[in-house]
Amino acid sequence: MSQAVLQVENLTKRYGEVVAVNGVSFEVMRGEIFGILGPNGAGKTTTLEMIETLRPIDAGRVVLDGIDVTAHPQRVKKIIGVQLQASSFFDKLRLTELLSLFGELYGRRVGPLQLLDEVELREKAQAFVNELSGGQKQRFSIAAALVNDPVILFLDEPTTGLDPQARRHLWGVIKRIRSEGKTIVLTTHYMEEAEELCDRVAIMDKGKIIANAPPQTLIQQLLLNGFRKERVERLANLEDVFLSLTGHSLREE
Amino acid sequence: MRLKWMLFVASLKMMFRQKEAILWSFIFPLFMIFLFSFVDFGGINKLPIGLVNASSDTTLVDALHKTGAFRLHVGSADQELVALMDGDRILVIEIPQDFHPHRNDSLILYANAGKPQEVQLAQLLLQRVLDELTFSAIPALPRTHIITRQVESRNLSYIDYLLPGLLSMSIMQSGVFGVAFGFVSLKKRGILRRLLVTPMNPNDFIVASVGSRLVLLSLQVVLMVGAGIVFFDLHFVGSLWEMLLLGLLGGVIFLSIGFALSGISKSEDQVAPLANVITLPMVLLSGVFFSRSALPRFAHLITDFFPLTYLVDGMRKIAIDGASMTQLGTEVIGLLVWGAVSIFLAVKAFRWE
Asked: pTM for the whole thing?
């Protein structure tokens, strides 16, 4: 296996009596898509925000591309790309203006149109963010996370609230970015999304990681333990029906 | 430096693209001036006098009318006495049936006991009118004549008084409300957090926001003084530069208050009442619309120290008296002290998250 680009050791966050993140450890390899799964309130977002320098680390250590996050937050900020959960952008700037401005924040002069191509938004170049659909907003926010050509891209629930077409479209965008050599860490609570995208997943619950392996390995382990679904003969589900009826094309323009 | 400039340009764009907000910050004060330009405060200063004229002679009534000092109401004795008791008259003059000004007759006056000063003034004027009528009937008597020559003088109108006040008020309003609402919204919508994961120095963003707000403020000063001169016949004798400078000094205070408020509020719903509690007393009591001399003594003492009072007084001295910044001792010192205090509060209270 290739080398780890992110090492998280014993990461802990407390809010008073509540331990939101309780001694979490994992590694992310260069070039993979790593998923953090878990129900709401499991500590996924808090874990990401500590790695992203947004929250102080109470205990434990995060090393990102050889840099200790606690010791050098500023150096870490320069090499990560972040899509925050439900994050928003200035209303009154056009997409190209926003991308140029974000580039400037990293001291870079970026090509806004190339970045928009990356997420298939070129035709919206002169639009304002509040004129975009939900899926377009998420794609734009990925473009904004790419302005500094980051070593790792963090996506916090990128497809929450999107319709099936927009979700699948975003999966395509994420896969393409990975194919260009980026490492991606994402959180989700959609299992089919994790199965579709992630090379490895960590499952979190109540602040702890309770499983960490490639999706297929986890499924095999479950089956080896004697688990059987009641009806394995199901060849299609309602989402398949929905997509076959409404088509795969996006409904946002 | 390049980044600061880019942020400044971006926040200017964002601000001026909020067309409605910008438009209002210019139109509202002008609209107020427009409204107040219709109010004839000269009419209020005339002394209301009731006349009950039983005689057929109108010499006295005409003479009183010519002074221009009275608002005359002619009516029956009953009507006028009721009006006097309601406080709507200073004096009621009863002219007897066979009255002649130069014949040693008597007039009966009913005076409003609650307004001794006005009564005194009205009586003096009345006496003078009567003397004039008496003397003019006896041409032989040698008298000193008064020769009046009209001199063009700087008669200040209410607009001259009001405009510097409204200008100061709109600097306060757009500073406090603009920043407080703007930053609470950026915070609530996660835009500030998104900026915090970039290597940007947060202070650069603050500096850029303050810079763009100060540009707006300067435009407010120039446009309002300009509109005052062009549309409202403003007697502006001061320097526009001095007004800009003082406006910027005041602006820093109100922007800082805006930052402090955005720091202690989580949503727009929380900002609104706080911003109103801070600005409304100043709008009403800092002498924006009316002189503070009408305030009770203790209120006068307290409002002396309001930041808006210093700004309004300073603006007025520049606009009306042509004072320069160096001549504005109290006002400039007051604003500087408030500047230091409000910046300190803003730094303490402002939160990025």
From this structure: 0.77
